[in-house]
Amino acid sequence: RYAPGGNALSVAAFGVDPAQTAGTNTPLFQAAITAAQEQGKDLYIPWMPGSSLVLLNESMNILDTVGPGVRIYGQGARSRLRNTARKPVFFVRAEDTTIEGVTFYGDGLDMTGMASLLAYQNYVGVRIHPLAHGAQVRNIRARDLYVAVRPGGDHRGDPLMPAPATSPNLERFVADGVSVKGVWSAVFGGSLQDSQISNIRGTFKKAFGSNIDTGQPPHLVYIYSPGLNDAAGTGDVGVRSKNLVFDNIQGWDSGADPGAVFAPKWVDGMVATNIAGRNCQGVLDFIGITDAQVSNVMSFEDKYPNTGEASSRASVAVKQSERVQIDNASISFSAGDHGKAVFVEADAYDCHLSNFQLVSNHTVSDTVSSRSTARLAGVRNTFENFTLINRGLTVGVGILVVGTGKYGSVINPKVPTPKYRYPVRIEANHPAPYLDYDPAQLKFDTSIGSALPVSFVNAGTTVRDRSLTNVVLPQAPGFTASFFGENGDPVTVTDGGKAITTNNTNSGSWTHVNSGRAKLTSVSGTSYLVVDGLSALGTMTVVVPVMGDNTGGIIVAYQDTTNQVLLQFRTGAGDNRPRLVKRVAGAVTVPQSAPSGTVSAAGDTYLVTRAADGAINVKLNGVDIINVTVADFATSTKWGVYGSTNSGPEIDSMVMVPAA
Asked: What does the alpha-carbon distance between residue 282 and residue 301 come to, in Å, rounded to a whole number?
């Protein structure tokens, strides 16, 4: 394929020889390029005896001022070039130039003594000016260089061919077949348009040395726009890339260095297929992407570290992006204290991720926090058909919809291994989060008393339970709540999926007594069981089978542990007279007590009604005992029960019916 044709000149005919010094070869090689351009011929780099490594100390320039673009090709692994001055081996400034079948060598990634990132980015095999439209790089190899191919980017300081003040898009660029070893990036492109990058493979790693910017993670393929990464807006000379196609990008063994295999930034319109990584810290890192179609993604033995639940990074991360669709992905972690598999961040819109298999392998158990495998935020973003398998120790959450997730959807999740406290947790309190699921498909760790298939932190989620003949069950105002099942298992959601949250002033736990009843035990302070009923107006019914001999009662309105209105079943020790108590910033007052002679007893039924303008009515076994207006917390939609001693009442259930 790479034999010289009749329309080709050979660099050997111009005196280029691997036995010669870089100073000798450099002008000879440049003369060969100039002749090929002037004569309209290809230029061939043959295998030559000896070391076969041709040394150069200046860039070989393909200039548009000399002639049209030229095809420069070699014999693959036999045609080896190295620039000893760490400058581009080829600097393409003429349109429709092709570099093919050449191997580039560097001397490693110790950047000590290099002055700037711009100097690092010149330490490349092929650099392509943004006005060299139609340039192609095919079937090349590179090792121990900072970058193999650098198309486009900021060239305002180019002494031979300055770019305009606003760096233009490089158009019709093609990189097809780039094999690398030990580089920072195989293809590091800036501001591309109508271009294709395919069949890129190899190892990549972080550079080092006293002058290197340690904030620059390596990527096998890295697309950016000059200046657009600068949050301060200084040096903003770039334009967004447009209409790019990527296929067959395969990286491996960068696990010790932070950097995903494929990292496009600031791209409008993109198709990417067949992206794979092994032993890397992530596979996709998307920033500033709009209108992207991505499919067939795999990361095996992923090493993405645990950087904290709130971290905006993951093996697959989507940030500042809109209308990104990723379908058919498999992320499998090596054993360790690894991080998230997927994160769609708060500044992402209308992104849809589907058919993901996420395999965790945690060696550190964390069942207390909301540590998750897949984290969903942003606006109108969707996780659909996610399967989560945890081969390691139990952690807190499988799929987490965070509080900033507006209109987020989780559709048909599956968790076949019981290694999560909550396979799905909905923290979002913005309008209309949506969950479509089958509870039987969400296995959870039953050794944790509070574990559930789904945890709802706030009300408002629309729930479609596939086990209920596919009926859509929106969360309506009101609820019916029991606290324990007949077998003693805790229940932490109401009939409509509203969360029953426990808020303690110090510590306390509610214990199953019998027949599903709850009683406060192990208490220090006060413990509140709170449900957001989605309405401030309505009636709460509470049955008290056992009154006990100490304090407890009904939460009439709740803001937090120091601000609420409570109905106490008993005034105090030896006094079973009910009373209404108000606590504002911790200060307690008594708006009204029941009439003298009113006594709480076992088996009582209490009805508490809140009407407009803070009007409160309490009935004990059908008889009015309290009528009072309390303006504080009149708009609170949170109701519940509470206790503050071990020997308090046993609560059977609570039912809240909203006002008509």
From this structure: 10
Cα 620 from Cα 421, distance rounded (Å): 39
C-alpha span between 322 and 590 (Å, rounded): 54
User: What are the pLDDT digits (tens) for 575-592?
Assistant: 889 999 999 999 999 999
The confidence score (pLDDT) of residue 231 equals 40
DSSP helix/strand/coil, 25:
helix
pLDDT at 476 over 70: yes
Q: Which helix (H) or strand (E) holds 33?
A: helix 22-39
Q: Could you tell me which of 326, 399, 391 has the C-alpha nearest to residue 362?
A: 391
- Tell me the average pLDDT across 420-425: 92
CB 230 within 8 A of CB 255: no
pLDDT tens, residue by residue, 349-400: 999 999 999 999 999 888 777 789 999 998 899 999 999 999 999 999 999 9
pLDDT over threshold 80, residue 438 = yes
Task: Assess if residue 170 is contained within a domain.
Answer: no
Give the Cα-Cα-Cα angle 85, 88, 90 (nearest 5 degrees): 130
Give phi and psi for 590, each to the nearest 5: -120, 95
Q: Of 309, 255, 258, 316, which is closest to residue 285 (Cα–Cα)?
A: 316
* 504-528 tens-digit pLDDT: 776 666 766 665 667 776 666 788 8
**Is 345 part of a structural domain of the chain?**
no
User: Is 282 inside a domain boundary?
Assistant: no
Is 218 part of a structural domain of the chain?
no
What CA–CA distance (Å, rounded) separates 376 from 341?
A: 11
Residue where one domain finishes, among candidates 80, 113, 138: 80
Write down which residue in 80, 111, 139 finishes a domain. Answer: 80
Those residues whose C-beta lies under 8 Å from the C-beta of residue 621, and which sit 6 or more positions away, are 604, 605
User: What's the CATH code of the domain at 584?
Assistant: 2.60.120.560
| Closest to 314 in 3D by CA, of 277, 294, 280, 340 | 340
Structure-block tokens of residue 494: 């109401």
Two tokens at 279? 């032993």
Query: Where in the sequence is the domain holding 586, given as residue range(s)?
Result: 501-658
**pTM of structure:** 0.73
Number of structural domains in the chain? 2
